[in-house]
Amino acid sequence: MPLHLLGKKSWNVYNPDNVARVQRDEAQAKAREEEDERLMQEVDAERRIKILRGERPPTPPPPPSRPSSDPATRAGRKAGDDAGPFRKRRRVAGEDDTDRDIRYAREDAAHAIAKRDELVLASRKSDKTTQAPILDAAGHINLFPTASAKSEKNPEAEAENARKKRGYEDQYTMRFSNAAGFKETIGQKPWYSSAGQDATAPGAMSEKNVWGNEDPRRKERERARMDVNDPLAAMKRGVKQLKATEQERKRWNDNKRKEIESLKVDETHQSRHRRKRSTSVDSLEGFKLDALQKTAVIEIQVEVEVEIRVETAHPFALIAVLRIAAIVIDMTMSARLPGIRGSLYQETIPRF
Coiled coil: which residue ranges (predicted)? Predict the structure, then answer.
């Protein structure tokens, strides 16, 4: 069986007692607002009547204070009515509202004069602070100056003390300002301060290292380091390497061109030599059948006619002449006119 404990709690907002209390408070608040509205309308009506009559309107009354259930709060408010800034303005017996306002105005004026005198006395006490200069000894602007609590120090003495302290620290401390050498560059200009000064000159660089010991090869190392870190030197090296590469490529191209030309010359010479030594039997280059046939026939006819004319007076040698002519024709046909030997031979036979 569930327990319904919420209805038994005094702080439950849905209890009948609490609901009735809320309704009662709301009714009282509404009645209070209506009463305040009525009083405000009465005061406003009276004020308008005074204005219409040409009289001075009365001072509006202060807002009514709400009653408090706390007795301590009520006592505090009651005690502070006359002391607070919004104290209740009560009239003394036998005076009207005008007399009351005049009295309160005089009291306010007296209070203001007393406050002003108090501020004047306070300002006189702090006259030294107010008369302090805005600029201090260091040249800084201070909008709220204060009296200097300590005496000014001697700047020369302070500088001397700082120099001694730094000299003592330099005995066991290495600073970046002395990285090039301990107190060796004091009073000297750096090498990059003058455009005409050569940092690699013999007298421009010390022969001692940072520890003060002799180092004869320091100049060589510094010069090499400067050449390595110099962008102009790097550009010059790059240009030199580029020129060397171009020359090497040009030399290689010339050698290749010469080799190709020599190979072409050798090939041409060999082809000519082969063409002179032996002509191909089956080659038909520049061959014309009609021209060669006529030429061969004419030559053979001339030779045969000559032989016949010469040998006509010797009948016994006719057979030998014919044989010699046949051999000559055969040799000519074999050397100059391959493939047409029979046709020429047939042409020569009837003429014989």
Answer: none
**CA distance to 287, 294, 296, per residue, from 291 (Å):** 9, 5, 9
Which candidate, 191, 188, 220, 194, places its Cα nearest to that of 207?
220
Cβ-contact 340, 289 below 8 angstroms: yes
> Distance between CA 131 and CA 34 in Å, rounded?
61
Residue 214 DSSP label: B
Instruction: Take residue 105 and report the two structure tokens written for it.
Output: 């105005």
Query: 114-154, pLDDT tens digit by residue?
Result: 888 888 787 776 655 556 667 777 778 877 766 554 556 77
CA angle 332, 333, 334 (to 5 degrees): 90
Q: What is the pLDDT of residues 216-241, one digit of tens each?
A: 788 888 888 887 888 888 888 889 99
Count of CB atoms situated within 10 Å of the CB of 234: 12
The answer to whether 133 touches 148, Cβ cutoff 8 Å, is no
Sign of the Cα pseudo-torsion (20, 22, 25, 26, in order): negative
- Say if residue 178 is exposed, middle or buried (CB neighbours under 10 Å; 0-12, 13-18, 19+): middle
Rounded to 10 degrees, the C-alpha dihedral 56/57/63/65 comes to 60
Task: Quote the CA–CA distance of 194 and 257 in Å, as a whole number.
Answer: 55
